[in-house]
Amino acid sequence: MPNHKSSFILKCSNISFSFSSGKALFSGLNLSLPHGAFALVKGPSGTGKSTLLRLCNRLEEPRQGDILFDGNSVRSYAPALLRREMAYVQQSPVVLDASVRDNLLLPFGFRQNKDLTPPTDEALHAALQRFVPDTSLRENALNLSGGQRQRLCLLRALLLKPRLLLLDEPTSALDPENRAMVEEVVENLNREQGISVLFVSHQDYVPHNVRSLLTIRIDAGRAEVLTEAAKEPGKTGDVQWT
Question: What is the pLDDT of residue 172?
Fold first, then answer.
């Protein structure tokens, strides 16, 4: 079993956040997410679902309160290291005008990741066959479909071996077939590898093959658990959203 420092992979304590315009978005938000949970985050547009993810990996900073990642304040992490452990995948996939291989290896070229060993071409090929089986390492990433690009970006994030995935509507622009493929990949990662997931979605999506499922609604600066169900005995800890 992993040696966790805390019972929770993520814990937000008394988080308040306001935009530069002065509009308050969160006031005293509290959140505790156990290791291995799959949290589906829903709510009306503009209520802060995306902002919550950006606060978690310090793309935004709260006005008050603290966020703990496995027991340590996110402020204690160098941002680059935090974003390796807590991978953020946004709605619109970003790829370079370069080969699939070069796009996958992009994070390993960053100065802050110089301590990481890039995967071999053999390992990249094996991973690609699981995530984007209908392409090759040599193909230009710009020639891929939207669904293929999204799966490529997800794979690129996973090569850094994160413990938490922050997924900001990753399937909203995809057709039903590609949407189902991305959802299946994410569910498998949670079930098989125990990667915790915060998945923002406006779709009528209900994960079926995950370790423990939470459905949360964010509205009026608060978060409410709508459903909580353990898919495997002993996998769900205490969960609190207020």
Answer: 82
